[in-house]
Design brief:
- The chain is α/β, with parallel strands linked by helices.
- The protein has a single domain, classed as Metallo-beta-lactamase, Chain A (4-Layer Sandwich).
- Helices cover 33% and strands 20% of the residues.
- The strands form two sheets. Strands 1-2-3-4-5-6-7 form a seven-stranded mixed sheet. Strands 8-9-10-11-12 form a five-stranded mixed sheet.
- A hairpin with a 2-residue loop joins strand 10 and strand 11.
- The relative contact order is 0.14.
- Bound molecules: zinc ion (ZN).
- Zinc ion binds next to loops.
Length: 287
């Protein structure tokens, strides 16, 4: 039986057929950090003062939306110098090859996901992607735990948080808004579609090891102070709802700035994870 945590091609069929339904106008989250993703999968843009960093390139079929979002903010595509990926699943690198062709940007991916592309390409989950012609790219930089990426006035710290895929990287991003500095952070892979038992068994992955690494990653991230919680899928941090709550009056509080959200978000992942394990245990008892 398929796990209720599974994601299938049907899940993405609507995005594939009608990508325009998932379009939203891009917007400034805070200072030099912008949202350029759609309502299904996230993408963020950072204006470093010395070129742009793009964080994930969404699905292959939403590539045009992403390009439009970047133009709509007034940024030339050709200013993208770095493309940094949260992990090597097709919904996060779908537009990468086209962006590289247009911009010659340097690409970054967790080293273990680069290895996954070479040795276990089936784990990039292309079978769940209705557009089946996507190919893995060769990253210019294979990121390791605690690596930093610096461009212009921006430094991003990569923290290895494997589990959802072998090379998931979570990012701590220093954001500037005038004289103010904030830390924005993204968990690079929080979905259980690759952590449920049927998936791990089907792909012959080490259940204990993969799950332990996932929880260890959360525990590490809990130690970080974070002002702005980002999602590599917008439902993780209610991107769209918060956007609706923003107002132009500078006296309004920015709903994205909330130091309590990060610990709450991580605790929520842990809670849902333990519920999944309990469900598995009770299923096993029934069988
Ligand atoms: Zn994924």
């Amino acid at each position: 039986m398929k796990s209720k945590y599974a994601v299938t091609a049907e899940t993405f069929m609507d995005v594939y057929k009608y990508p325009q339904k998932y379009a939203i106008h891009p917007f400034r989250i805070c200072g030099n950090l912008y949202y350029v993703g759609n309502t299904s999968v996230g993408s963020h843009l950072i204006d470093t003062g010395d070129g742009l960093i793009l964080l994930d390139t969404t699905f292959p079929q939403t590539y045009a939306l992403l390009i439009n979002s970047i133009w709509e903010l007034g940024f030339p595509l050709y200013d993208i110098r770095y493309i940094v990926h949260s992990h090597g699943h097709f919904d996060h690198f779908g537009g990468t090859q086209q962006f590289v062709a247009l911009t010659k940007a340097k690409t970054f991916l967790g080293a273990e996901d680069a290895k996954m592309f070479r040795q276990r390409p089936e784990l990039m989950l292309l079978r769940d992607c209705p557009y089946s012609y996507l190919e893995p790219f060769t990253p210019d930089v294979e990121l390791k735990d605690n690596d930093t990426i610096t461009l212009g006035n921006t430094t991003i710290r990569a923290i290895s948080t494997p589990g959802h895929s072998p090379g998931v990287m979570s990012y701590l991003i220093d954001v500037r808004d005038g004289a103010a500095h904030y830390v924005a952070a993204m968990h690079g892979g929080a979905g259980f579609n690759t952590l449920n038992l049927p998936f791990l068994e089907e792909f012959n992955l080490d259940v204990e090891k993969v799950r332990k690494s996932f929880i260890d990653g959360i525990t590490r991230l809990e130690k970080e102070h974070v002002d702005i919680t980002l999602g590599n899928h917008p439902d993780q941090n209610n991107t769209v709802g918060k956007r609706g709550g923003m107002c132009d009056d500078p006296a309004c509080a920015n709903p994205f700035i909330d130091p309590q959200e990060w610990p709450r978000f991580l605790a929520g992942i842990k809670k849902r994870f333990s519920i999944m394990l309990e469900e598995e245990a009770s299923e096993a008892q029934k069988a």
